[in-house]
Amino acid sequence: MITFDRVTKRYGSTEAVRELSLEVPSGEIVMFVGPSGCGKTTSLKMISRLIEPTSGTIHIDDTDTASVDINELRRSIGYVIQQVGLFPHYTVAENVATVPRLAGWDKPRIAARVDELLDLVGLPAADYARRLPAELSGGERQRVGVARALGVNPNILLMDEPFGAIDPIARERLQNELLRLQQVVRKTIVFVTHDIDEAIRLGDRVALFSRGGTLEQYATPAQLLARPASSFVADFLGEGRMVRRLSLIKVRDIELAGLDGERSPAERVDADVTLRDALDAVLRARDGRVLVVEGGTTLGVVDADTIRRASQ
User: Fold this and answer.
1) Which positions are tagged coiled coil (predicted)?
2) Distances in whole angstroms, Cα of residue 244 to Cα of each of 29, 200, 269, 289
């Protein structure tokens, strides 16, 4: 668990982060989001002491990070950045081996860990280990960056807009890959983004900052969308916030209408789709009703009224 306790960062008379207090629970993805100049990247870098706080404390579990040797602290944390920062003249395997090598692991252990990590991020060692970064796509380089960050199996990953320079299709794939990896590795992840849709899609919790480093709201995505804490939060979320909320709810989790002896709707959706996908199907359906199925079993009917009630 990472705990910020009244953390402030000043540059002269300018406050980049103001009295930040929040807890990042162990094993969760917490998204830092907000406009440019709101202190989200500064807050992230203070965790690994790439930037030192002016006042306040940051604890990892029960240990004040200021009391830990700075090199030891940084080697215990994985770090992934937007431009990846791979060493261009190192092979993929050599890049992934960077931190284990610095940690003094022997060669057989390093080789086994590199193979394990490349398989984990979907880049089989047999195909990718000997390639140079220039031979990879942007998305593949980003996966290597994630593998390198996991080198010595850190408990914490810090991710600073890692997918910001990736095209939208590759970005969605990388987001899916991160969620898949998190199911396997269960790290504590702090992820900086300026994209509220990315924050809502990936985060277990979202910290929304305003300019001047003020934390406006810290909540789960569903709570953030349903109950904005201020006009700033509501404006930042935009008019589409209720549509975004539909993407967080699965059809299986709502109360469905019954058939009531009526003719079965022609359109069908799986119970595992989101209400946003179900709404698209409802709008396409001739009579505005869609059958919800799971396997070969009919669970009920979803229509616009059902979706409206579930989203409130």
Assistant:
1) none
2) 18, 8, 19, 21
Per-residue pLDDT, averaged over 44-67, amounts to 95
What's phi and psi for 43, nearest 5 deg?
Answer: -60, -40
Strand partners, 80: 159
**How far apart are the C-alpha atoms of 155 and 214, rounded to whole Å?**
27
CATH topology of domain 251-311: CBS-domain (3.10.580)
pTM above 0.70, yes or no: yes
Mean pLDDT of 110-131: 91
CA dihedral 135, 140, 144, 145 (to 10 degrees): 110
Asked if residue 223 has pLDDT above 80, the reply is yes
Separation between Cα atoms, residue 118 and residue 99, nearest integer Å:
15
Distances (CA, A) of 20 to 24, 67, 82: 12, 20, 24
The CA-atom distances, in angstroms, between 31 and each of 42, 131, 208 are 14, 32, 8
pLDDT(37) > 90: no
Domain with CATH 3.40.50.300 in the chain: 2-246
Q: Which residues contact 46 (CB under 8 A, 6 or more apart)?
A: 7, 9, 17, 52, 53, 58
